[in-house]
Amino acid sequence: MADTPLMTEHEEGLQHQFADMQQQLNATSLGMWLFLATEIMFFGGMFLAYLVYRYWYYPEFAAASRSIDIYLGTINTAVLICSSLTVVLSIQAIKLGKRKLCVMMLLVTILFGLAFLGIKGKEWYDKFEEHHVPGTSFNAKDIIEKYPQLHVEPAPMQIFFSLYFAMTGLHALHMVIGVGIMSYLAFYTWRGHYTQQYHNPVEIGGLYWHFVDIVWIYLFPLLYLIDRKPLR
Amino acid sequence: MATTAVTAEREHYLNTDYGIRSWLLTTDHKRIALLYLALITVFFFIGGFFALLIRLELLTPAGDLVQADTYNKLFSMHGQVMIFFFLIPSIPAVLGNFLVPMMVGAKDLAFPRINLLSWYLLVLAAGMMLYCIITGGVDTGWTFYTPFSTAFSNTHVIEAGLAIFIAGFSSILTGLNFVVTIHRMRAPGLTWSRLPLFIWSIYATSIIQLLGTPVLAITLLLVVFERAFGLGIFDPTRGGDPLLFQHLFWFYSHPAVYIMILPSMGVISEIIPCFSRKRVFGYGAVALSSIAIAVFGFLVWAHHMFVAGISLYSAMIFSMLSYSVAVPSAIKVFNWTATMYKGSLRFSTPMLYAMGFIGLFTMGGLTGLFLAALGIDVHVTDTYFVVAHFHYIMVGGAVMGYLGGLHFWWPKISGRLYPEWLGKFAALTVFLGFNLTFFPQFILGYLGMPRRYWQYPPEFQVLNVLSTAGSTILAVGYVLPMIYFLWSMRYGKVADPNPWGAAGLEWKTPSPPPTFNFDEAPEVTWEAYNYDEIPAPEEVPVG
Amino acid sequence: MSSEHVISSKIYWGIWAALICLTVITASVAFIDLGPLNTVVALVIATLKALLVVLFFMHVKYTSEKLTKTVIIAAMFWLVLLLLLSLADYSTRGMIHAGMP
C-alpha cells in the first residue's frame, strides 16, 4: 500500500542543522509544544477579561449567554471533535503507509473545519441581525424584555458580546489558519512528500489542530452554558 | 584561493557569498545577527533623537520648544522605539543569534528559516512604527493606558499597537528558537552544568519571551479592536475596567524588563571571568538565579499599579513579592564581585563596561526596592525617581552590557580588532555621561518633579540642565563605537581566533567563523570557565 | 514525536465517543438547576474532554518525553498565575480602606 517515497541524497527530510533525524523530530515536536504554550497565554489574556467581567456582571452575562444559540454551539463542538478524530486517523494512516487514506482523512478534517466556520458565520450573522454587536447600533432591549426576572442592565451586556466576538473571532482565525495548514499537508502528502518513513509535519500540524479544538472545548461552556436553567 | 599580502583568503560566513540576496535570504544565524544589528542600531538613534528633543525641551522650565501634545508624543515614541525596537531585541537577537549555536556546538539554530522570519517580522513592525511616527505619532505613553488610548487619544494608536503586536511575534519566535536549540542541539558532553552562563541567561530570557509576550499581544489587539470596531472591554461608560488593561499590560511589561536585563547579565558573566582569569564564583547559584529571576519576575507586575486603584491587600502581596525578586539579582552581583576578588584583572574595554554595569545595575536595583515599598512609592511614583530608576537599569545596565558584549565578541564577529584606546575612551564617556544625565533625576524625583511633564517649576532647572548636559556627553559616547566599529571592519588589525584568551566553544572557531561554525561537531569534556587551563594572552589586543 | 507507536483505531473511536457523550452531557446538564454547581460541572467536564484530547489524540500518554509534559504543565501554571494573582486584586477591592473611617 505504501507508495515509493521521494529519494534524496541524504536521509529524506533531514535538515542540515540537525545531527540526525531523531534530533530533528525531537526539536520540531518541542518547537510546536512551545508554540502551543504561547497560544495558551495568548487566549489566556481574554480568559482573564472574561473571568473579571463575569465576576462583576453575572446577571448580564447570564442573560446575554442565553441569547446565543446553544444548539448551534453544541453541534459545532461535535463537529470539532469529529475533526480531531479524522486528524488522528490521518496520522495513523500515514504511519501504516496508507497515503491515500491519509489524504482523505485530511480532506474530511478540512470539511469539518469549514463546516465549523460556516455555522459560526451563521451565528455571527444572527447577532448582527439582532443588534447584539457592540458599538453604536447595539441594542439589547430584546434580551431585557425576554428575561425580566434577571434584572439586567444593557451596558455590561455589551461587554459580554465584546468578549464573545473577540474570543470566537480569534478562535475562528486560528481555525482558518488550521484549514490552511491541513490543506498544505494534504497536498504534499498526496504528492508523496510525506511518507511512512517521514511524516513528522503531519503530526506537528495535527497538534496545532487539536489545540484549536481544546480552546473551543473551553469556550463552549464559558460562552454558551453560563445559565440555562429554566426560569420561574 | 586569492592571497593578500597579509593572510590567505579563508572562506568564512562574511565572504562566502556576496550580494544583497545572499543577505536578505540568508538562513545563517550569524548573518541574521548582523541584519538585526543594523536594524536596531537605526532605531536606537531614532529613539535617541526623541530623547535629545525631550532633554532640549527640559532645559528650560517653560514649555517653549514644542507644544504639550507634541511632548506627549516625544516621550511615548521614545519609550516604544527604545523598548520594542532596540532593547528587547538587542542582546538576544544580535549576540544571542550569533553566539548561541556556537556556544552549544551546533551548526545553526534549530529553525533557521523561522529565525529569518523573526527578522522580517521585526522589519515589518519597524516599518509600521516608522509610518506611525511620520504620520503624526502616538501620545499615549509607551504604556497605552485605557481609556485614553481606546477612546480619547487622537493619534495613531492602532498603527503603533499593531506594530508592537507584530514585533512581539518576532520576539516570541526568537525565544522559541533558542529554547529548542539549547534543549535539543547541545554538543556531546555539553551537559547543562557545563554551559556558559550566557546560555543560561538567554534560556531564562526566552522563557519570559515565550510566556509573557503573548499576553501583551492579546492586550494590544484588544485595544486595537476597541478603537477599530467599538468593542467595549476597557470602556468605563459601558462597565469596563481600565485597571484590567493595566493588569494585562504589566503582566508582560514587567517581565519584559527582565527580558532586557537578563541577557546583559549573561554577557557580564562571560566578561568578568575572562578578564579576571578565574572561574565564576558560584556557577550554580548564578545559573539558577537566572531562572529564578525569570520566574519571580512574573509575580510582581502590580507594583506598577500601587496608586492606580488596586486593592490594598493585593498591593501588599505584590510589594512583598517585589522584594523577593531582588534576591537572585543580588546573588549575581555578589558572585561577580567574588569572581573578581584576587583575580588577575585586566581593564580592557569589555571589562570597563562590565564593571560599570555592576555599579550602575546595583544602584538601579536598590532604587527599585525603594519603589517596592508602598509608603515610599506613594510619594515618588510617576516622578523622575522612577525615570532615573529604570534608566539606571536599562541604560546603565542593559545598554552597557550590550556594548560590552559587542566589544568582547567583535573580533569573533568581524575578524578585526577595534581600536582599544578609543574603546576605553568611549566606555568612560558613556559612564560619565550616563551618571550626569540620570543621577540628577533621582534628586528631581525625590523633590517631586513629575514625569511626562513638559514644563516644570523654576526651582528644578539646575538639575534639569545638568541632566541635559549629561545627555550630550552620553550621545558622544554612543556615536564613537559606531564609527570605530565600522572603521575596524576595513582598517582594524586582523584578529586571532581567541584574542582575549577566553573560554567557550565560540573561541575555538576562526575569527570570523565559517558558515557552519565547526568542521566537526566538538565533544566537550571540560567544565565552563576553565581559566586555570587557558593561558592569558601575552599582549593586550589593541587593534 | 519520537514514538513510532501506532495506536489501534479502537482507542481513537472510543475517545471520540467519550468526547461526544461528554458534550451531550454538558449541554443537557446546563438545563438542570444545580445552583453554583452548574459552573463547576461544566468546567470539570470541559477539563475532562481537554485531557482526553491531550493524552490520547495528542499522544502525550504515549510519549516518553518528559519535556513535553513539563511544557504543558508550565503553560497551565502560568495561565493560572495570571488569573489568580489578578483575582487577588479584584476579589479584595473595597476590603481595607487605608486611613479612611
The class by helix and strand makeup of chain B works out as mainly alpha
- What's the architecture of chain A, going by CATH? Up-down Bundle
The biggest beta sheet of chain A is recorded as: none
Major interchain interface with per-chain residue totals: A-C, 52 and 49 residues
Low-confidence stretches of chain B: 1-6
CATH architecture designation of chain B: Up-down Bundle
Number of helical segments with 4 or more residues of chain B: 16
Which shape of chain A, going by the Cα principal axes? elongated
Task: Tell me what the structure shows.
The complex is a heterotrimer of chains A (232), B (543) and C (101). The longest helix of chain A is centred in the C-terminal third of the chain and has 37 residues, at 154-190. Chain A has 232 residues and is mostly helical. Chain A has helices at 21-56, 58-66, 70-95, 99-129, 141-146, 154-190, 200-224. Helices cover 66% and strands 0% of the residues of chain B. In chain B, helix 9 crosses helix 14 (384-414). Chain B has one domain (20-508): Up-down Bundle (Cytochrome C Oxidase, Chain A). Chain B has helices spanning 20-24, 29-57, 68-87, 90-104, 112-134, 148-152, 157-184, 197-229, 242-276, 283-296, 312-340, 349-372, 374-380, 384-414, 420-447, 461-491. Chain C is mostly helical and 101 residues long. In chain C, 66% of the residues lie in helices and 0% in strands. Chain C contains three helices and no strands. The relative contact order of chain C is 0.10. Chains A and C meet through helix 1, helix 3 and helix 7 of A and helix 1, helix 2 and helix 3 of C.
